[in-house]
Amino acid sequence: MKFIALNENPCKPCNIIKVKDTIIMVDCALDLLSSLCFLPLRIVSTNNSSHYSNWTTKDNQELETELKECGSRVFVDSSPEFSTPEYSTINFEHIDVILISNYNCLLALPFITERTNFQGVVYCTEPTLLIGRQFMEEMITNIERCPKTKEAFRWKQNYKQIPFPVNVETLKPHLWKQIYSLKELNNSLSKVKIVAFSEKIDVFGNLQVTPLSSGYCIGSCNWVINTNNDKIVYLSATSTLTTHPKPMDHGPLRNASILILTNLTQTPTSNPDNMLGALCENVSVTLKNGGNVLIPCYSSGIIYDLFECFINYLESNGHSSVPLFFISPVADQSLAYSNILAEWLTQNKQSKVYLPEEPFPHAAMVRLGRLKHYPGIHVEAFSNDYKTPCIVFTGHPSLRFGDVVHFIELWGQSPNNLIVFTEPDFPYLEALTPFQPLMMKVAYCPIDTSLNFSQANKLLRDLKPSRLIIPHQYVSPPMMQKHRTDLVIDYAECETHVYKRNETIKIPLKRNFEKISISSELANSLVPSEIRPGLSIATITGLLVAKDNKYELKPLKKNEIQEAIGSKPGLSLPPLSYTWGTLDLQVLMQKLINIGIYDTTIEQTSNGCIVHLRSEEAFVTIDDVSTHIVCDASSNLRTMLKDIVVECLKKF
Amino acid sequence: MAQIKVTPLGAGQDVGRSCVLLTLNNKNVMFDCGMHMGYNDERRFPDFSYITKEGPLSDFLDCVIISHFHLDHCGALPYMTEMVGYNGPIYMTHPTKAITPILLEDFRKITVDKKGETNFFTSQMIKDCMKKVIAVNLHETIEVDDELSLKAYYAGHVLGAAMFKVEVNGQSVVYTGDYNMTPDRHLGAAWIDKCRPELLISESTYATTIRDSKRCRERDFLLKVHDCIDNGGKVLIPVFALGRAQELCILLETYWERMNLKVPIYFAVGLTEKATNYYKMFITWTNQKIKKTFVQRNMFEFKHIKPFDRTYLDSPNPMVVFATPGMLHAGLSLQIFKKWAPFEQNMVIMPGYCVQGTIGHKILGGAKRVEFDKQVLEVKMAVEYMSFSAHADAKGIMQLIHSCEPKNVLLVHGEASKMEFLQGKIKQEFGLNCYMPANGETVSIPVTVNIPVDVSLKLLKRTLHNPLTSESDIKKPKILHGTLMMSTKADGSPLFRIIEPQKAMKEVGIKPHQIRFTSTLRLEDRNRIQPLRFAEILFQKLKTKLRDMYNIQLLADGSISVSAVIIKVDVGADEDLKEVYVSWSDQDDALGSYLVDIIQGFQRELTT
């Protein structure tokens, strides 16, 4: 088995697994962090250009038109670009299957299906496809709303000298690409096949692949790849907390030959529950002072929990008249789809549909007008409904595109207002840099429900894999928390392989046997010999039929024997039985008498004896491991003697 | 020879009361547990005493599977679980689990509250029964126990309808329930993969119909409604809360939209919203088109269909009214019927089955005068019966057989004469055995059992790449030869392996005993040639004869080797004779004998 990671960030996985001549790509995530190096996309861009000064290096004055400086950091004045998996060394023609664990891991798919020669099949669950499509559509719409007249590219040659807000070294700017088109997105997703949790998918008869609920978000899964002999478990974003998705399915993940662990929490030092508490408190204080709250968010996921939590919290804290606005090009879809995916939700949400009620309370909030949603700030309905103080949920959490940019500019200069970061994908100070100086309050309450290190270590102790593959980041504590030696994977009860981007890990999977099925007809014809109690053996000869990498053994038919032997004379089938043990001389003598041979003499030799059949001018040499029949070719004596000798031996 | 046993307790050469028992590798599964709407006595329920005369059924059944929410498929479930006694698992899809208890409760009310029957299940029993239900998702593999697993496939008959595959030790049986192979107004088409079951148990309601008749029936229905309102009449459609009601609503809604009709359509309040909500929740179970557009417009949020108010009863204007219950035996539908029946421009359309004794049943039977509350009512309005159930036609059934490639087919849920026709067709077109047992009749279907074993990978690869012959012709049959070792693993489960015979003997600790032969031939040689020279001549002759079929060599000591067979030449006692010794081991018996024959044949050539 071989394993290669194509992305540096283990939370944006794109990995390749080769097993039994089948090549599988698991996950296809886009690293959005690179977008922080770009100027925010504004609906009205003119008045802001003055806000930034041009930036160049000494040796390349041309960069002046591409780079802007703000808060001693430099930004590219172009449509945002995203860091794609490094697949230059991969021949996509050879990739048989792509497995997608959750909608976050789907975002780079169009780059592969539409821009490489990939011919295989993509599998994901229905919610992953539905919500993934929403994420992609949202990004495309938000970016296309603010078209840039030209694309900056010269800076990439000099990127090492440019003081970007984030370290771009590991993001490799040459891998950055602008977002794909809507057409590419649609073509790409039309190639996806839907699978259900616990569905067993056959891959060329070679492997069986099964998605199992991972509890992280709606439709998110881990993968079990079974060969006849080995089980490979791929653990993607997984949560053991109780939020809205269907809980994680542990059982089938146990006792794997190999377990690959990726996608642990990005905020290992913060507890989601505490963060939620802090968030509510911050919001409450702001509202009391008459300020507005801006929550940059993705259009699906944690926001469902936030809606549910807020509605109760605000009600009980006297803010029941503060409107909640959810603004996204896909807000309507997100709210609607979440309520028809009950089968993918936690038990108590699921059972609501039996009443029948919507599984999420946000459906009722929308009906009551408590939660209002709009495709964007440009729609008239929003201008009509807009009143302050209010809470706005909108994207994109990178603060580089989407309506969030507008709200920061609208509210940024008042210290009464608050922006709260809940999505863990981006460092919030760096995200805010191009908007500085800002007066509004800033709170950082990241909520990442995926496994933290202690949960992951505990899970591994339960799952007991024989071998473990983990990214190098999980071996030592995070850069910023060097003293936190507990923030590592320390499961030591098995062999652990550590991977880095583009390094191949090879693990031999010992396989001495393959599965084959014997037809009942052939099985019935077998003559087993018991060697000792509990152990029998039988000689078996049959026609091997291989179909879809599955093997079957059937009885040989006459014509097949003929075909196999062909016209070659002197060729025969393998023996029907094998003789073993030592020959019983007394039985032999008796049997010779039975066929009328009386004149035998026995001559002892150093390791056995020679039986002379004098009248026949033949003799039989016998020792412990062999019998040699010597006789005249002209008579049928040879076959008679052979039969007798066989009868005097044990056979199977 | 192993067997699969199938016994229909209902739906054997009959439509209604579906209940099919299956025994597969010692596992017992009940498919559906339906009620016969045509009976009021004990024949209403399947005869569970077939399973056991006394006591609970739990010990005799490993699981119960319900294909969809129609009462002829699930109506006897509370009776079976709560009154006869069954505590094992019951599987159905999420929509079926949501809608079944409502239909059961509806029916219970009619039977007990209105008709005053006793010995029927109670509301509490329905609730207790539903607690035993485990909801399944499409295509998910459910492990009932270590050996028995099941998987649901989309059936397209009603919301949540599913076909089920059960599998025990690698052998599977598919039960279709009711299914539809063509997508309709709100549902998609049934789909199954090439799962090659040992047996396919298929419904055969429309075994002899070759065209999709549903569309025609729908058009018929719409025209009749349209004509009636055009003539100023009122149309009453008695329905049950769920199922066909929503189908018909979609039908009328789209027709109204298309024809731009303004005549109001009403639906009795209370039911619509709640019932239709189920459809909204389970949008993922509808067809592609509804799924795609539901964010913009939910098909089940009807624009033209409005809640009914009793004051509309006396309105002189034309209208279409859906009202419950569906058999015209009580409630609002009966009330409206009383008002509208005496006028011939009006119409009542019965979209489903009516139980004996109900007004619905009477008027469908052609009664023109109906008596109730000691009054006689003249029925002058038009009375129409229409079935809208979506079933596969003969073509669809053949299509499904083609899709899943079963080894045997068994027909249920159809009329005997029609089944016979289809049975012939299946035998003729697919060459498959096709069974059609009557209720209570057990069919035993012989099946072959393949035994899974492990084969040494080396041996397998050698067999695949080096056939017995030296030519590596890939089309030639590959013959695998080895030793099957039968033992048990540490946990007591059987361990079967095929390995090379020599390895097997070594592993088992037994010594092979080789048998060799040396055959002596005497060839006349008047020329008294030197034995070495004679061997050379023999070698050349053999080489010509064998061509390139075998590796043949003349060794330094004057002996000849043909593969593993050794030939030696010596001068005999009589100097005019040469003694030729051909020596080989048992494995090369065929070659040894063949060479002896050839050399004997040379005698003639040598002497002449």
Terminal-residue CA separation of chain B: 62 Å
What percentage of the residues of chain B does DSSP assign to strands (E)?
25-35%
Number of domains of chain B: 4
CATH class of the largest domain in chain A: Alpha Beta
CATH superfamily of the largest domain in chain B: Ribonuclease Z/Hydroxyacylglutathione hydrolase-like
Largest sheet of chain B: 7 strands, mixed
Which two chains form the greatest contact, residue counts included? A-B, 91 and 86 residues
How many strands of chain A? Answer: 35
Integer average pLDDT of chain A = 92
Rg of chain B, Cα atoms, Å: 38 Å
Q: How are the strands of the largest sheet of chain A arranged?
A: 11-9-8-3-2-1-25
SSE inventory with pairings:
The complex is a heterodimer of chains A (652) and B (608).
Chain A: E1 2-5, E2 15-19, E3 22-26, H1 46-49, E4 53-54, E5 67-70, E6 73-76, E7 81-83, E8 97-99, H2 109-113, E9 121-125, H3 126-144, E10 176-178, H4 182-189, E11 192-195, E12 201-203, E13 207-213, E14 221-226, E15 231-235, E16 258-261, H5 272-288, E17 293-296, H6 302-316, E18 324-327, H7 331-338, H8 347-350, H9 362-367, E19 371-374, H10 380-385, E20 391-394, H11 404-411, E21 418-421, H12 428-432, E22 441-444, H13 453-463, E23 467-471, E24 495-499, E25 505-506, E26 513-518, H14 520-525, E27 529-532, E28 535-547, E29 550-554, H15 558-565, E30 579-580, H16 585-594, E31 600-605, E32 608-613, E33 618-623, E34 626-632, H17 637-647, E35 650-651
Parallel strand pairs in A: 3-8, 8-9, 9-11, 15-16, 16-23, 17-20, 17-21, 18-19, 18-20, 21-22, 23-24, 26-29
Antiparallel strand pairs in A: 1-2, 1-25, 2-3, 4-5, 5-6, 7-10, 12-13, 13-14, 14-15, 27-28, 28-29, 30-35, 31-32, 32-33, 33-34
Chain B: E1 2-10, E2 19-24, E3 27-31, E4 63-65, H1 71-74, H2 77-85, E5 90-93, H3 94-114, H4 123-131, E6 133-136, E7 141-143, E8 148-154, E9 162-168, E10 171-175, E11 199-203, H5 213-230, E12 234-238, H6 244-259, E13 265-267, H7 271-281, H8 288-293, E14 305-307, E15 319-323, H9 331-340, E16 347-350, H10 359-364, E17 369-372, E18 375-378, E19 382-385, H11 394-404, E20 408-412, H12 416-430, E21 433-435, E22 443-447, E23 451-456, H13 457-465, E24 478-488, E25 494-499, H14 501-508, E26 514-524, H15 531-546, E27 552-554, E28 560-562, E29 565-571, E30 577-585, H16 589-607
Helix pairs in contact in B: 2-4, 3-4
Family (chain A): Belongs to the metallo-beta-lactamase superfamily. RNA-metabolizing metallo-beta-lactamase-like family. INTS9 subfamily.
Domain Beta-Casp (chain A): 303-432
InterPro entries (chain A): Beta_Casp, Integrator_9su, IntS9-like_C, Metallo-B-lactamas, RibonucZ/Hydroxyglut_hydro
